[in-house]
Write a structure and sequence with these properties.
The chain has 254 residues and is mainly α. Helix content is 28%, strand content 2%. 44% of the residues are buried.
Length: 254
């Protein structure tokens, strides 16, 4: 599988194993690695698909991508997870919409070696079959990564909040590990650091799991998560590349 040519290598300085994945299986953690894989494999930290820096994405506005996210954008573009917009721009500061987010997460799971179910048509009153993101919304709904609103809508044009993003990536990791125990669990001794995420926030458990178990999200500062802010397009690239880093099936198991 050409998308996995770099798999099996770790980013320089990365930690071997994720801190609290031990919580899910102790010394000999064995997890099935997703739909379409041959068998359950002993878990090891998956390979980073961008160990070798990806070529610079040829966006006219690449210079406007925030420095912490530029390598993630390059990698996500090289892996065909993100694409530019009309005029060959990426618009890194633009908000990531809920429909766009579905396509990006679906493509990141596929880049990691996972097979998604066939689209089954729209499940939401405001998502029209045949529109650009409709099939991805259907696929991720089937595997439990995304959910609609209580009124039966999806609200595809709404921006994705940072707290919502944590839930999306944790559910995607649940699918990849075939394990529903990430959300609501943290490693022994973990202290939730973000004082601006209230106990009543429905995404708090996912933020904790994403911060501690799979280290996919981080705060704006050590103690502030900024949960209500929209997720920018460059930030989204970092979220999905970190997700890919911890869920990609190593090439040796293909």
């Amino acid at each position: 599988m050409t998308a996995l040519t770099s798999a099996g290598h770790k980013r320089s300085g990365s930690r071997t194993g994720r801190r609290a994945l031990a919580l899910l299986g102790a010394a000999a953690l064995v997890l099935p690695l997703g739909v379409g894989t041959a068998s359950a494999q002993e878990f090891a930290e998956p390979g980073n698909l961008c160990t070798i820096p990806a070529p610079p994405a040829q966006f006219a506005d690449r210079g406007g991508i925030a420095a912490p996210h530029i390598e993630a954008v390059d990698c996500a573009f090289a892996q065909k997870i993100v694409f530019g917009r009309e005029g060959n721009v990426y618009q890194p500061a633009a908000d990531m919409r809920r429909d766009q987010m579905a396509s990006v997460i679906a493509r990141s799971l596929e880049a990691g070696g996972f097979t998604l179910p066939a689209a089954q048509g729209t499940q939401y009153s405001d998502v029209q079959n045949g529109t650009v993101h409709a099939d991805r919304i259907s696929q991720l709904t089937q595997i439990g990564v995304i959910e609609g609103k209580t009124d039966g809508s999806y609200r595809p044009a709404e921006p994705v909040r940072r707290d919502q993003m944590a839930s999306f990536v944790v559910r995607a990791a649940n699918f990849a590990y075939e394990n529903d125990e990430l959300r609501g669990n943290t490693s022994p001794g973990y202290v939730f650091p973000f004082v601006d995420v209230l106990q009543t926030n429905p995404h708090r458990d996912a933020i904790a799991a994403a911060d501690d178990l799979i280290e996919v999200t981080g705060g704006r500062t050590a103690t502030m998560y900024d949960p209500a802010s929209s997720t920018r397009r460059d930030q989204m690239a970092s979220f999905v590349i970190r997700l890919l880093d911890v869920t990609a099936i190593p090439e040796s198991t293909q």
